[in-house]
User: What shape does this take?
Amino acid sequence: MSAALLPGFVGAIAARFIGPLSFKLSAQAAPVVGAAAGAAVNLAFLEHFRTLARAHFTVRRLERTHGAGAVRAAYEVLAARARHQAA
Assistant: This one.
């Protein structure tokens, strides 16, 4: 085989196998992409619930320190102020 025919021969072989090879690579990448997406969803939920827990335990600490009634009254004042600003 001469050097002039080699690029055409390699091109013909590559054209024949590019379809199955790309299918195989995409099939092998699917679990990795799925795992990365699952990890991202888990991280989002973890951050959400961590924020909720921090707020919950902050309110509980305030209730122990100042009493539940005082905390509820302060919350109502802040909620009324927020409703007034939103309107």
